[in-house]
Amino acid sequence: MLTNLSIDNYALIDSLEVGLDAGFTIITGETGAGKSIFLGGLSLVLGKRADLSSLKDKERKCVIEAYFQIKNYGLQSFFKENDLDYEDSTVIRREILPSGKSRAFINDTPVTLDVLSQLGDRLIDIHSQHQTLRLTENDFQLKLIDALADNKSRLYEFRKTLSSYTSTETVLQELIEFQNNALKEQDYNDFLLTELEAAPLKEGILEELEEQYEQLNNVELIMEELSKGDQLMNDEQIGLTTLLSDLKSTLSRLSGFGKQYQNLHERIQSVYIEIDDINAELQAFRDGVESNPELLEQTNTKLQLLYNLQKKHGVSEISELIKIREELSQKAFETAHVDEKISIKRRELQDLESALEEQALVLRERRNAIIPDLKNQLESDLAHLGMPSASFRIQLESTDTFRTNGMDELSFLFTANKGSDYGELKKVASGGELSRIMLVIKAILAKYEKLPTIMFDEIDTGVSGEISNRMADIMKEMSKDMQVFTITHLPQVASKGNHHFKVFKTDTTDGTSTNMRKLSNDERVVELAQMLGGNELSDSALAHARQLLN
Q: Which residues, by range, are in coiled-coil regions (predicted)?
């Protein structure tokens, strides 16, 4: 339950901190005093979006903190799924900065508004006048039926199956689209693939062929230069081999006269060996070089093929051509096997469709089983709220469409008077009737959803007298199992609370501020008397107020 709420620099609130208790809490105040501001601040800390208009002082940030006792509500799994530290006493904080940015924290861990909103939905049900209008929507009506039918786990399984169905259907459509496009492009892609597979594609092939082409294309020059090299090496008079041999013999004769001559001789010996090896290799190259016009033509053909393929595919590297070849090969493989994949996905979709229909049928059966009890309970409770002739006609019709809550079309019709035609709630129910119906529905839902806290914002709009007294009794009964707040203008309702807070405005030289404080018993008498008879307190109004409280 909500145990403490602090609001700083929000709308007309400078600074506000209130401690809150279990049971039935009343919030009253004159029209325009700021009750909606208090509700707005609470909504912000539960995940509602905010903007700069939330700040009273545009130079300071707005901070709202709410403390909750959540030990008995089984929320550990939610905290674990969202990687949050679980505390029995959990603190939610919302900050709106002067820049307009917003931050949210759960137990000092930053969270997104989506996570904050999900937790907020599990902690407080804020019933606004706008939500009363939701009573006329089919989704809300079906939610009521599902709560009574205990369909929560079955709806979860249905939605999980529906998600698989939707994703499988998407994959199937993508495969069909791929097949249609692939068939159009298949001949051209096959031609490109055949062309690439015929080419000698491998890493380094281009450099290798270019080198081979240069050698074959310049064979006469290479032979001429190799012959020159051989002559320089082996000429009988001035050949490098002859001169080095003579030098080696000379230094050999000196090597016995000292270590320095020995070292010099060894170095010349090494040079001679290296030159002799180069000479042998040079002669081998010369003997191996020959003109080969056929090979030159083959090499040139391969090079031109690779150059043309690079130009055709708009690439500069052989590795890119190899990648294109692999992609075309993969596409050809997928095209060849797409029929099989489509068949598999169609079978999967058929199986999921059958599963959805079975799950939807179970949901429908459980809903139909609970509808008579719901109808009786609604009519019985509304009779106590001054609507003795209220009657509902609730029917389910199966549809061929998969929806997030099954395959049912709900007809939720109402009449408040005997002999009148049934019609949709939004067309035949007055504002006061809608308020009473919504309160009864909330009371029913509270037994099944087990929310820690519920807040009613003028749920008693459009009613008065004894009916408002009975509505207060219903909220009082609800507060035995949960924390209940109600914002009200009716003294009959206000008198039923265990706790009573008053929202009020004060004017100072700096402007107008909204505040809120808990009333003592004597202050409650005065507040109720003013609600009964206005600001001029009469003895009869005070007596009536005391009577209501007692």
A: 199-229
